[in-house]
Amino acid sequence: MKKSSSRRQDTSTLTLRLWEFTGTSMLNLFIWIALVVYLSPLTYMLVTSLKTASQMNDAKAPLLPSQAEMYTYNGKSLLVYYVPTSTGIRQLALEEKHIKYSLFVDPADPQAGLIRWDGYWGSLKHVYHTQLTLANFITLWTTVDYPHLLRNTMIVIGLGEIGVLCSSIMVAYGFARFRLPGGKFLFFLLIGTIMIPDSIILVPTFVLFGRVLHWSGTFYPLIVPQFFGSAIYIFLLRQNFKTIPRDLDEAAMLDGAGPLRILVSIILPQAVPTVVTVALLHFFNAWNEMKMASLYLGTRPDLQTIAFSAQSYQSIGFTPEALQAAALLLMVIPLVVLFLSQRFFMEDMVIASVEK
Amino acid sequence: MQFQIVRRAARPRLRSRNKRYSLSRYSAWMGFLFILPWILGFILLKAFPIFTALGYSFTNFRMLQPDQTQFIGLQNYITFIHDPRAWGSLIRSINYFLLTVPIEMIAALALAAIFSSDRLRGKRLLRMLFFMPSVIPAIAISFIISGLLNPNSGWINELILKPLSLPGIPGRGNFFQIVLALWTIGPGFLIMLSAMLSVPREIYEAARVDGAGPAARFFLITFPMISPAVFFSLVINMISSFGGVALLDRGLPYSQSLSPMESYISRQLFSGEYNLGYASALAWVMFVVVMVITLILFYSTRFWVHFPEEESNEEI
Questions:
Q1: Which of A81, A110, A310, B305 could bridge to A124 as Cys pair (CB 3.0-4.6 Å)?
Q2: Rounded to two decimals, what is the model's pTM?
Q3: For chain B, which domains are there?
Q4: Chain A residue with the nearest C-alpha to that of B199
């Protein structure tokens, strides 16, 4: 009696375990499939950047990067086609083009001479073999001065980063630690400014930067506004500063440290993950930034950033698609590499708020 | 906003302190000195431009003939009412908001719910990979979508529709918007996930004992508990759907803004005319529309968002 009941329990826990195991593996399988589908469109850019322009123009070409098969006959290089004949589809090189018929050579047996085939050669399919080409990247590298673009981008990002970090940290500290008269109202105003659409400030700032200060064609409009802080970064930093216990502040104050000293030696060391998160956010944003760049740097090709150059490749009418893909890839890859190689960004956005 | 729940739950209150040694000992001007950069920026780059734009919108200010500027009253707004293309852009902007924000919210919420499960392996890597497309600039996404939908060689036609003998997709339609929305869920997903992870376990245990199923647990416990985070990501998504930069910049110039109204405004500005007066009037119309939507969202919070009680400010 006892034995049988315990056995029954065993089998039921076993079923339960099996059931749980199936559920877990289904969930994991599902999420990985979802991820592959989610990221699959990105492969299009990668694959296209490795194709030749001639393949992009051929609607019947295979989807993977390939090159048309060539055959050299009597010193001429000929394209190889799939030709339907009475003995099945053969791979033949096109020697003489006519509208009603064409003459082909068999690459496997060139001694046999020319083969006549009736029909229009334009309806035939090219023979391709899979091959990657770096030609697009080489073309880009020789036509576009990437080191110069990178230098411009780094000037904008570097100076902007210094400005936005210094000012946002200071403002966040002011909101987090001081009793300000009307502080609540000011903080509400700060949150409110996040919701102001860009277009409303477009015209007056354009007049201010372009007409009054004569800053068109310089980096100033991209950098100087950063020194006034960014509302969303101030919000993130302030929320984090408020979680840092005040005991150390007070101990330092007893030792005679001033407010700036407390910020630098007490608060910042404890807020490193959030500061890094904000710095990375600004890096991504400044790398992609196009609004200000297109307004103020349009007249100065020598001051263009990487995003600007990739964008102008897009808008030029007849740039081959493969070249566009390569230009975009050169812009996206550094972002993705930086994103995947950093430690804090995701951790902080998720965990910092949970643990502290 | 969502950080407050967490902090209150996790950190014991540290009240035992001598009031004399707190930073508030410094008078308010010290605090103002710290927030001075933002106050200056707010006045120079936000408040002043907004009201200057209002001033411009009542004039026929053109960049090339600034000396001929005259006060023309509401003429620019009357032009707007009779300008079908401006109306169309405004309506398409609102449609874009109504199409993409629900997609972003539902996808991010569903993904966060899956990620809050204990059974999922490799969460760190997965989280990163799901977030990654949110940093990719929109021009790259636009390029990918038009390539994929190409009627001759696009992968969607070649790999999915032709084998299933379905008709090809004629144009881009809303496809770009939908993919871009799905590739923008990163910040919202992270914010909601962190809120979900901070919901105390005991509540779920208690509900399980009372016989609540997974759906009931989600809608009756998880969602109300994380509603401030849901609201925060809703606001962030709303801002970016109107062409603004909330957390991550999608890297589009004004002329190709996701919000058709914004690109129409910039076209008024730069297509030879430099019609700053009319552009300012249009910008004000858009500003009012966005503010009305924001107010509606904030008003709606009283029906579905459970804000934690506001932390008292006395400790400052």
A1: A81
A2: 0.86
A3: 57-136+183-315 (1.10.3720.10), 137-174 (no CATH)
A4: A354
